[in-house]
Specification:
The protein is of the alpha+beta class and 243 residues long. It has helices at residues 6-20, 30-36, 73-88, 106-119, 122-127, 131-136, 141-151, 155-164, 170-178, 181-187, 207-216, 222-232, and strands spanning 39-44, 50-56, 63-68, 96-99, 203-204. α8 packs antiparallel against α9.
């Protein structure tokens, strides 16, 4: 198999954007993405070494994703994009946890490259960076934080994308990685939400609908029905029945 390149990642990202019917350069709301693709998505606390997992039925009609709610929200968005690669482009998808060790695996590296290209399209980044910063290769902290909130990504994810695309000079990359980004963000009036964990207990998809159908069809009892909702933390669902 040929080495997965940046160009390949960009091509796959464009294919996914075509599936989503969005333009090549606009930012994506990843909750909207999984909802649009009808991927049952749960946010649950996992260990700090784990980001999430995905799996799908044999015929591909049902897809599931688990996201670590202990990760910061920018990292959660990256996890979702990463798992989309496994669900749509991985030639041999296997249910497994993705985590800090994933860079050692070629398939996981490919998924990370795809996620970066999907979340931070080159054209979209360049369009939102001042021309003088593009010319000098010195991207300001103000611009970096604005881009992180615009594209919904963590600090390191954005900086490494700038490095991958040769938009920022090495000395700039080194400086940006040395920053306390929460402090810099706070000083500029941001709420720091992109750099904080969240979404624990949130579920997106048709879990509630499926549970109610099982109950209505008398496949499960009322007690089992409520057990299913207790399992997911009833009341925290973004797409729960009755809403």
């Amino acid at each position: 198999m040929a080495k997965f390149s940046i160009d390949t990642a960009e091509s796959f990202a464009m294919k996914m954007r075509a599936i989503l019917q969005v333009s090549d350069n606009e930012p994506l709301n990843m909750k909207t993405v999984v909802r649009q693709l009808n991927i049952l998505t749960l946010y649950r606390p996992l260990s700090e070494q784990l980001w999430g997992l995905s799996l799908k039925s044999f015929d591909g009609s049902k897809k599931f994703m688990l996201v670590n709610s202990n990760s910061n929200k920018g990292s959660q968005h990256f996890t979702i994009a990463h798992e989309l690669y496994h669900l749509y482009f991985d030639s041999n998808p296997e249910p497994h946890f993705c985590g800090n060790e994933s860079e050692k695996n070629p398939t996981e590296r490919s998924a990370n490259m795809f996620a970066s290209a999907l979340l931070m399209p080159k054209g979209g980044l360049i369009k939102n960076i001042p021309n003088d910063e593009i010319k000098t290769g010195i991207i300001s902290v103000d611009t970096v934080i604005r881009l992180e909130y615009l594209f919904g990504v963590s600090h390191r994810t954005l900086v490494y994308r700038l490095k991958e695309l040769n938009i920022a000079k090495p000395i700039c990359i080194e400086y940006l990685l040395s920053l306390s980004i929460k402090r810099e963000s706070h000083l500029r009036g941001y709420d720091n939400s992109m750099y904080e964990p969240g979404n624990e207990g949130v579920i997106i998809g048709d879990y509630g609908t499926l549970a109610k159908k099982l109950f209505d069809d008398e496949i499960i009892s009322e007690g089992h029905y409520w057990e299913l909702f207790n399992l997911i933390g009833y009341g925290k669902s973004e797409d729960s029945i009755g809403r």
